[in-house]
Amino acid sequence: RIGTAALAVQVVGSNWPKPHYTLLVTGLCRFQVLQLLKEKPYPVAEVQQLDRLEQFTNGHKSEEELGELSEQFYKYAVQLVEMLDMSVPAVAKLRRLLDNLPREALPDILTSIIRTTNQEKLQILDAVRLEERFKMTIPLLVRQIEGLKLLQKTRKSKQDDDKRVVAIRPNRRISHGSITEDEEEEEDHDDVVMLEKKIRTSSMSEQALKVCLKEIKRLKKMPQSMPEYALTRNYLELMVELPWNKSTKDRLEIRAARIVLDNDHYAMEKLKKRVLEYLAVRQLKNNLKGPILCFVGPPGVGKTSVGRSIAKTLGREFHRIALGGVCDQSDIRGHRRTYVGSMPGRIINGLKTVGVNNPVFLLDEVDKLAKSLQGDPAAALLEVLDPEQNHSFTDHYLNVAFDLSQVLFIATANTTATIPPALLDRMEVIQVPGYTQEEKIEIAHRHLIPKQLELHGLTPQQIQIPQVTTLGIITRYTREAGVRALDRKLGAICRAVAVKVAEGQHKEAKPDRAEVVEGEDFLPFDCKEHVTEDAKPESINDAADLALPPEMPILIDFHALKDILGPPMYDMEVSERLNQPGVAIGLAWTPLGGEIMFVEASRMDGEGQLTLTGQLGDVMKESAHLAISWLRSNAKRYQLTNASGSFDLLDNTDIHLHFPAGAVTKDGPSAGVTIVTCLASLFSGRLVCSDVAMTGEITLRGLVLPVGGIKDKVLAAHRAGLKRIIIPQRNEKDLEEIAAHVRQDLTFVLAACLDEVLNAAFDGGFAVKARLEHLNSKL
Ligand code: ADP
Predict the structure, then answer these.
(1) How far is the C-alpha of 109 from the C-alpha of 127, rounded, in Å?
(2) Where is mean pLDDT largest: 287-301, 448-462, 522-536?
(3) What keywords is this UniProt entry annotated with (predicted)?
(4) Residue 694 in contact with residue 727, Cβ under 8 Å?
(5) Quick check: helix, strand or coil at residue 572?
(6) Most buried one in 140, 362, 364, 422, CB count within 10 A?
């Protein structure tokens, strides 16, 4: 309860980067707290003064009283001060003070100067009686003197002339080892020494070491209250932490890698083959300056998880860097240290996180980098990804080169269209197409369902999802190239089942349970009727009785699906929509995979205008104009007429073409053949076959040119239940990529010109028949 009254003389410091203040106070006297009046916002107390200040003015009296003791103390104090370097002004001043100050003040002053613990200092403060205070301080002085003697002995051998008080401070610790805890400043100083030691022992590059030593020299001279102190320290700490020379050992065995990849991922044969080739080359040639792999495909097809598997097979650390929406090049390269709040870029940060210099870095969504006023992050990535350059990657924050050549970079993207060409050029693109229905079913049963069961704490004894149900989810509740939505739907089912299982566990008595099962509410979960078309209702009726025992798994049938996921979101509407002329089915490619698209056309009286709707890009608009021009120039050949029987198709006629869905922007030349077919149907009044889909670019001469994304488009057509697909002849090679069972279900028409397209799109061909009919009628 004893404290020191003091007068604050000066406050220095700042709030940034963290609050750090230095207070200069002049001590006045000791006091004792009698009663605490209030604690907040600051303590207010009634105190009693303990030191009698008049003693100081009247020195002689007390000197007599203490006599011996004070004389002894004075001697020790002089001995101590004289051991220090008198040329230092602070020491000389202290020496003068010893003579000028009243003796009673000396114990307090010297205790504050010599090396003691806070506890010892507090004891001196607590000693109210002067005599007691002298007695307590003398041993401390003696200890300090002994310590200094020891120090001087050890120093003699070394030529060290810097004897300033500040400089010998850290070494004093040797004299009495246990003093560490409370002296923050000292501690900081020690930290700097430690940091220097770490820098010297770290395996950083020569250039980096030079910079660090320079910085640490500056740091030593810098007052801690300076904002730059914290910055420099952070910088040095990062430099020490970076894995300059630390790496994990690759364990590479192709056979094991193949097993890991196969176990983690079903299908994706092409991707797995390429990855294995890559790994095999790595096994043969140790430090491969390999190409950077870039997996391009729709979301949810397993690009990221393949990256993770590669890290697993190599036994390397894995780190994912999400680049979606990054629009500042400092995100990649860091800020210069001159900026407020500067920090290293994501690459260096990632290295610090993983702690080794050969991790697998997954650059996720490289196609979604954006440009802004803060520069182009894609340009910054160029240096990172170039195997010829990245051994000396320089982050702006570090300002020294770091070798990235050991890092294995894998990029992922949804489309290559938005990746800047220079960046694309540095990567080897591997297309990861969407999955077929059959593949999705396998993925669901091998990977997704077991994963979801585990996530929800369920066992296969509690829930059973037959393959037909999975197919139902895939066709009616999801429409995607990957399996993410499927995974979510399976999660929803598991959640619903978890509720039932948890409820069931509380029902001990069997009869109760039977009642619930028979009740209407529980219908979806018992296995009564309507499991699937091909399931046998009788056996399921039996199953209803069997469902009574508690250990019976809950079977997910279509009723249960409807109850949990709601009514089906997608329906097969193919045959329905083609019951009037002027509609054709096209195939479109989107970053989400392939899709089928109904192109609609209608005509009305007008002045020969063409209206296009459905958010079309320029290329698509051009395709529409091309299609109309070709049809107009060939109208006679095909006997196409407008409403009034004229071969000039646009005479007094307006045409409207629409491409659903209206909210999605579309572009590209591949809708050309679909537009021609759709318009041919409109002008001839004949229906396009309902089971035909088509894709291909057209020219004015009526040629059909090849287009991209054939595999995705074919898969989409297959998903939608179409039977015949018209593709450009020069795309024939792309069909090899398509799984055999999908090819079996479909008939492909390879068209080199528009005649062939029209012949295939209409029942019984187009050109010949149409002409004959017209000729007949004219006769
Ligand atoms: P992407 O990066 O392509 O968007 P992810 O790698 O995040 O997709 O994959 C989404 C989910 O789908 C993951 O949980 C992954 O395990 C699963 N998945 C995707 N493809 C497969 C596959 N072929 N086999 C097993 N699981 C898969």
Answers:
(1) 14
(2) 448-462
(3) ATP-binding, Hydrolase, Nucleotide-binding, Peroxisome, Protease, Serine protease
(4) yes
(5) coil
(6) 362
Residues facing residue 483 across a β-bridge: none
pLDDT at 62 over 60: no
Q: Is 633 annotated in the active site? A: no
pLDDT per position as a tens digit, 619-656 = 888 888 889 898 888 888 878 777 777 777 777 888 89
CA-to-CA distance for 453 and 41, rounded, in angstroms?
Answer: 55
Local structure of 596: helix, strand or coil: strand
Burial degree of 325 (CB within 10 A; 0-12, 13-18, 19+): exposed
> What phi and psi, each to the nearest 5 degrees, are found at residue 618?
-60, -40
Q: Which CATH number fits domain 583-761: 3.40.50.720, 3.30.230.10, 1.25.40.10, 3.40.1740.10?
A: 3.30.230.10
Q: Is 583 helix (H, G, I), strand (E, B) or coil?
A: strand
Strand partners, 463: 554
**Is 263 in a helix, a strand, or coil?**
helix
pLDDT in tens, 21-31: 888 888 888 88
d(CA 69, CA 72): 5
366 CA distance to ligand 1 centroid (A)?
Answer: 18
At residue 203, the 3 state secondary structure works out as coil
Place of tokens 């669901």: 444
682 lines ligand 1 (CB under 6 A): no
Q: Can you read off the two tokens belonging to residue 196?
A: 């220097």
Nearest atom in ligand 1 to 446's CA: 25
Angle at 319 (CA atoms; ends 315, 325), nearest 5 degrees: 155
443 lines ligand 1 (CB under 6 A): yes
Our answer to whether residue 163 is catalytic in this structure is: no
Whole-number Å distance between alpha carbons of 307 and 432: 13
Q: CA quadruple 276, 279, 285, 291: dihedral positive or negative?
A: positive
For a mutational test of ligand 1's pocket, the pick from 305, 362, 412, 487, i.e. the residue with the most ligand atoms closer than 8 A to its C-beta, is 305
**Burial (Cβ within 10 Å: 0-12, 13-18, ≥19) of residue 88:** middle
Q: Is 300 marked as binding a ligand?
A: yes
* CATH classification for the domain delimited by 254-339+360-387+409-431, as one of 3.10.180.10, 3.40.50.300, 2.60.40.1930, 3.20.10.10: 3.40.50.300
Q: What DSSP string runs through 262-301?
A: HHH-SS-HHHHHHHHHHHHHHHHSTT--PPEEEEE--TTS
Residue 550 near residue 504 (C-beta atoms within 8 A): yes
Q: Is the dihedral of CA 546, 550, 553, 559 positive or negative?
A: positive
Task: Kindly tell me if the per-residue pLDDT of 106 is higher than 60.
Answer: yes
Residue 582 φ/ψ region, left for φ over 0, alpha for ψ in the -120 to 50 degree band, beta for the rest: left
On whether the 436-502+549-571 domain is CATH 1.10.8.60, my answer is yes
State the burial class of residue 249 (Cβ atoms within 10 Å of its Cβ: 0-12, 13-18, 19+): exposed
Spatial separation of the C-alpha atoms in residues 414 and 376, rounded to whole Å: 20
| Nearby residues of 324 by Cβ (< 8 Å), 6 or more positions away | 364, 365, 368
- Cα–Cα distance between 728 and 154 in angstroms, integer? 91
3-state secondary structure of 54: helix
Q: Is residue 303 part of an annotated ligand binding site?
A: yes
Tokens 């099962």 correspond to 517
pTM higher than the cut 0.70 = no
